[in-house]
Design brief:
Chain lengths: 411, 411
């Protein structure tokens, strides 16, 4: 029997009524002749509520215990869903990450899956059950409960789909799929019918929140076909597949905006070998992820260095920079959280020069200044003022004709 | 190092502030030179809230999944407590029932412990941790999550104390200990300093809610000394120990009231062998626990049969009785939930005739009618009208002088 993995996000299971609606959908997939494995996130805001209780006790809760706490959220959602599916007369059994054989490393709060031992899940499917699985959690090689970080339920679904050889990993969410731009910013944005793993990776890295970056990477590496869909709609959503796999060739797939980063600039950095390494080693030692890095040309043996980091890491970063700036003999540092990063993604740009020029021109025509630029082979990112960001999205979206007619295979 | 097991009920950990207060107490026990194992119940009303969500989905949730759901409550409480103890600079680690090696049978919702494999807990203690343990839960011999029924956290604490050879099992609750009567009914009730297992068993069976009946039985069978105490007071509470173990010999230990039962009477039951067996087999097949049974003398080959059952089981019982009464050729049945059961418990009554007569006389002097009577070697129970119950408690409490001077060893 073909295996379908379905993952439902927290909004889709936020209350008993919505859990019943999800149960209906699960039962339909079962009755259509599939073996069904369902991965659930915690209900609504419950993860944040658990976290708030922990931080009411102490600002920095013990990581092992915080993971034990947060995994209660998925446990509640999955058992309620199993109760709802059973109440429909369709046999279902729920399993924790530990019971499902999801083995991780020991990094609490952001564990990585190192092995999947799906024997118990396979046995439960063979016994005729719908399997309901807690997202976001695993068992470490030390036998402690771990969590996989924000968006980790996507990772659970994709990894289990790979381990079971599922036909498809359906990611149910509160939007219709992946769009050419965030429809709240650009009402003319279109749903994308099919997108390649590479493009989806770039969009996710550029701030599109619909899929967790690591889960897309895992899907690409393991050939898992993802279908992103709305939890309470029958319309097809967005397929994330191999580049050649009926993905229509277009120049630009979509536009993404990330307003979660701040820009940091260090002035008058001595321009000699090893300085950049010293700076970014110190930053990495704090576990802070640096995104864009721009170094201007040198004048008089000194240069300015700018980079972007997640806004919430700025206080920890400043604690590092205070000492660092004087250690390396630089000038001063400034931080700026009034920025946003606009990215244009499309596999077609590999073979199409001039895309960057067109993008810059579209921004210039709107009088929007570009503060930083970085590129990959299929992405161009520009840092602009946050207050220009929405206009920038619309200008670029329009310049590349992304609001055009529906593509083949779309509703 | 001596091992102390401490169990905290849901009221004691109802919010982050109270969890911090419990953490202080745990750290003090550790600093006093003990290995400390803490068993926690779910926070406040959280078990009832989880149950309400399940029954909003379906009136009779799947038992395996309901157990999975309800165990989330203890998981949340235990990890928050472990976070609070760690925040005090005292290393603590929490473990689920499954991780702690609490193996049960497969009866979901009322599983019985069949084995304890405390290796991981012993290892954690040896590594210097305070161990925080989820009450109320275990892992079945089928590897499914189970719960131990109402009051099951007491059972977890006593069983783990037995398995670890603990010095004492401290049960922390929201009262000061076990009283000669419920202080809400009889303000002159006294806290009992020491009580024998047998007396505590009779009191618990007679409706005293401070300790779960099965946990007292397990403690007696395994020689676990229990100390019932208030979670936020330093005063000594009530020790539950062997009868010879410095338990002062008294005639009467205390009075208990149970208003949770209903009386059922079947009229005109044919008085021939096998009829009572037929009735109570049919009742037992529904999983309904019968408490008192009284059969009157026979007239003309027919008799009246009365018994008591938990009030919540009356609807299921009536479904059985409708057919049964005609099958056995009896008259009719009546149910009456306006009753209460008053019990007098004391090991001294074994050697002291006349206690029953004194009790009946005290009730008669108040004009209170007795509807049913049953006795054990150390208990006398009378069913009275519910509206007479409080007066009955006070009359009997006074007749046996239970409000008298404090006993040795009490605060």
């Amino acid at each position: 029997m073909p295996i379908v993995v379905q993952k439902y996000g927290g909004t889709s299971v936020a209350d008993p009524g919505r859990i019943r609606a999800v149960a209906d959908r699960v039962v339909r997939a079962r009755e259509a002749g599939n073996d069904v494995v369902v991965v659930v996130s915690a209900m609504g805001d419950s993860t944040d509520e658990l976290l708030a209780m922990a931080t009411e006790i102490t600002p920095i809760p013990e990581p092992r215990e915080l993971d034990m706490l947060l995994t209660a959220g998925e446990r509640i959602a999955m058992s309620l869903l199993a109760i709802a599916v059973n109440a429909r007369g369709c046999r279902a059994a729920s399993y924790t990450g530990s019971q499902a054989g999801i083995i991780t490393d020991t990094q609490h709060g952001r564990a990585r899956i190192v092995d999947i031992r799906p024997g118990r899940i396979e046995g439960s499917l063979a016994a005729g059950n719908v399997v309901i699985l807690a997202g976001f959690q695993g068992l470490s090689t030390n036998y402690d409960i771990t969590t996989l970080g924000r968006g980790g339920s996507d990772m659970t679904a994709v990894a289990m789909a790979a381990a079971l050889g599922a036909e498809v990993c359906e990611i149910y969410t509160d939007v219709e799929g992946v769009y050419t731009a965030d429809p709240r910013l650009e009402p003319r944005a279109r749903k994308i019918g099919r997108i390649s793993y590479e493009e989806m990776l770039e969009l996710a890295a550029a701030g599109a929140k619909v899929l967790q970056l690591r889960s897309v990477e895992y899907a690409r590496n393991n050939g898992v076909r993802i279908h992103v869909r709305h939890a309470h709609s029958e319309a097809p959503g967005t397929w994330v597949v191999e580049e050649g796999d009926e993905v229509e060739q277009v120049l630009i797939r979509g536009v993404a905006l990330d307003d979660g980063e701040a820009k940091v600039t260090i002035d008058q950095v001595p321009d000699r070998p090893g300085i950049a390494a010293a700076i970014f080693k110190a930053v990495a030692a704090e576990g802070i992820n640096v995104d864009m890095i721009v170094q201007n040309v040198s004048h008089d043996g000194r240069t300015d260095l700018s980079f972007t980091v997640p806004k919430e890491d700025v206080p920890r970063l400043e604690a590092v920079l205070v000492g660092l700036v004087s250690d390396i003999g630089a000038g001063r540092y400034t931080t700026d959280d009034g920025i946003a990063k606009l990215s244009l993604v499309g596999a077609g740009m590999r073979s199409s020069p001039g895309v960057a020029a067109d993008m810059f021109d579209a921004l210039a025509a709107e009088g929007i200044n570009i503060e930083m630029i970085s590129t990959s082979s299929i992405r161009i990112s520009c840092v602009v003022r946050a207050h220009d960001a929405e206009r920038a999205v619309r200008a670029v979206h329009q310049r590349f004709g992304l609001e055009g007619a529906l593509l083949d295979g779309e509703a």
